[in-house]
Amino acid sequence: MFGLRPAFPGGIRLPVLERRDDAAVVRQLPFAPRLFLPLRQHPGAAAVAVVRAGEEVLRGQLLARADDETAVPLHAPATGRIVGISEQPDRGLTTVSVIELAPLPGDTQEDPGRPVRDPTAAGPEALLAAIGDSGLVGLGGEAGPTALRLARARARGVRVLVVNGIEGEPGFTRIPALLARHGDDVLTGLRCLLRVLEADQAVLAVEEADGAAAGALLARARQDTRPALQILPPRYPQGAAELLLRRLARSGSDGGRALAADPAVVFSLATVAEVGRLLSGGLTLTDQLITLAGDGLGDPGNYRVPLGTPVRFALEQAGVLADLDRVLAGGPMRGQALADLDRPIVKGATGFVAVAADGSARVPEPMACIRCGECVAACPLNLHPAELGLLARREEVQAMVEDYQLERCFECGCCAYVCPSHIPLVQIFRAAKDQWRRAQAAAVAQERT
Amino acid sequence: MSPAERALRLVAAPHLHAGAAVPRLMLHSVIALLPVTLFAVALFGLAALATIVVAILACLLAERVFAPPSSVSDGSAMLTGLLLGLSLPPALPLWMVAVGGFVAIGVGKHLFGGLGAPVFHPVLVGRVFLQAAFPAAMAQAWLTPLAGARNTELPATSLALPLMAPTAPYDGLSGATPLTALKSGDTGAPLAELWLGTVAGSVGETSALLLLLGGLYLVAMRVIDWRIPAAVLGSVALFSAVLHGLDGERNPAVLTALGSGGLMLGAWFLATDPSVSPMTRRGAWVYGLAIGVLVVVIRQFSGQAEGVMYALLLGSALTPHIDRWTRPRPLPEGVER
Questions:
Q1: What's the pTM value of the predicted model, to 2 decimals?
Q2: Residues B160 and B295 in one domain
Q3: Which residues does chain A have within 8 Å of residue B331's beta carbon, measured at their own beta carbons?
Q4: Interface ipTM > 0.90
């Protein structure tokens, strides 16, 4: 058999990592002594605090409301006392308000929520409102407000719901955990989303390693809402929504044919499962299923962590070594190295990697581009990383954007992964994008005056 | 214990790497050339060894002069020297070899901007300079292969002093290479000898078989793009077959064309240099085809016996244009977002 022809160019075959025996296990992280909750945890507007310092709050209680459709409400991850609200530096040059919460001891914690027998009994509008009130954001890495994306997809007349069960990063094991431990939540979430979208078709896409687990789960799904299962051979970065849609549309399967014809929307498996879990439990988003990985941890694996937990605390609970080379927010391909382990785990986090300092992680000095074209062959969007890199050296940012579509780059890292000269292409492109955006903003400001 | 008492390193993503590295690519190329290098020494003796050693030393010295010290260790100058040595006639005066090495690195590489920047392969720049400056020596300094006892001594021409006519007569020289013989209407060497390489010719160009094996090794190690040699050799084979079919007297058969001259060295080791070949996969086919056609055209329709060197240079001149014609088209914007 020929299998699926990749529907996007390039991409890379990452070395296949042996799955740990406990890949499907999820451990609960205890409450840290202090939780730190920024009022903006995603791209969008900040929420507005409705609590004051000194106030006692219950687990699941509203802490900040969303006044804007791009904002999401924030709820208390633990029963406890608000220590204070302070301005903290955010990404870039801005600041964000951060609520500091001191949880009460674990055995005094309220059990939040009120189980709902059948969440899908409610109408689409009510379901959409409930998802908005739960404070859910995309959990597949993008972290946009789920209710907003759903509303836009509804307006677009989406007919097909694609559930993205592709593990986005090597070494992460959220997909097997979700399929094995949250199967019912996935199926409930799927029905909720189909109802909100008033769509009738769904596709679940997973890679081969998770094919059997996905098949077993779908066998339990109700006939009328059972998604078509699409099992893909591994290829990075096919989990990116845009590429996944292309690949499925060309697959020739039932789901694929529907995708080619009808407008579709992609939600990550983690988001779908969380919709099911929150709505059927009458819950709000107060914790997060993440993978803690890397050779710097004694106890790596999947953890359910309360929002606001400092990264340092989570790593300590996972048996972190004293001597670390770096810590990544996200996985090895796209994760950003952290300077500060005291920052909190926020909505949409997928995992962290702690890399031990054993000397093997030496970063080679970048050499000159030898024009080998490996990056050109690897780029899944068919951009021209080599030319972009050479243009960046000459600081021709305008040509990078206008002639070579720099802004399409979503920083998957394939180009830098294959570069024999170890040129940090992703870093170069990110800097160029920043420079371009600043220049655009300055030009707009200039025009106003 | 708590981490981050020491500073965490802020390294940009991705944090994984495929493992390819420029110095390793160079090393693989040198390994792939080892069999043919040893064979050359067995074939032409001390003269071949001296030519190779002098070429490498000249290139390393030039690299040291023209570039920061660290670049000597990336192996690229060493590879340039080895390739240059292999591509020269074995009895060429050694001072000319040294000049060729200096020109290859100084002009061919660093005048264009160093590693990755050359428009033409530095080895070919060095060789074409020698061809232009010393045409007589480059056309005559061939040795008879497997010359027995004579192999252990340097021919007098090798030791000729700069800018002086050789005092000793050309000693032990071979009259012609298979290609020059073909050009003058003689029958060339038997096919088996041609492919094994027991014929007169440049130091490391005679054994098509060993070069082919080295090239396949580079493909297996994913050092070179297989499309380039496939296109070069494929178009030489096709074009030669057509010409041989039309006029078998004047035009050699396919296997003769493939096995002679600098074709194998050029197709596997010179044409594939990333900085002189196109960056796109489609471009590699165009480039290879162009070189193959040019090789046959120059060999059969010009006064030159061998056309590989000029074909490679012309092919590289096309590379920027090929890169522009085959520029990747970004995927159309997705349906979502």
A1: 0.90
A2: no
A3: 8-9, 246, 380-382
A4: no
